[in-house]
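Below is how a single chain appears once it has passed through the pipeline. First comes the sequence as given, then the structure the pipeline wrote out for it. We keep one example in the README because the format questions we get most often are answered faster by looking than by reading.
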Amino acid sequence: MSVQFLEDLAAGQKYRSGKRRVDAEAITAFASEFDPQPFHLDDTAARGSIFRGLAASGWHTAATTMRLIVEGEFRPAGGVVGAGCEELRWPLPVRPGDELHVETEVLELRASKSRPDQGIVKVRNTTFNQKDEPVQVFVVNLIVQRRPGS
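Resulting structure:
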């Protein structure tokens, strides 16, 4: 799959990722290392929490989203390089057995005034579960290279 330079992108374009299943072992392994709270580590403890059952850390969802984006159709020239996050929400928890996929929508783009070889692209990455319910919404500005000679 070829990369998309700034000139190849336009507001409204959408790109999709493949799918990735999240199991209980991955949820507890991630949480053990990075977010060791009871509702991410133990189903019994999680049942008594706001989640009412084992739930992946939001940071686990974010990391999985990043993996799906990098392996998906959206291939900005220069890589997926963030310049700042404008929004990050987790409308629903990710549960064991959920199969996630991401839709990336180009919202805005502009050429850089100080660096003529690159621009900024604002995208909304929405991570969905297997029921097509959004589990994460992430709006970010990315640095994207311009086509050489543009």
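The helical segments are 24-34, 38-41, 43-47, 58-71.

See the next section for the split statistics.
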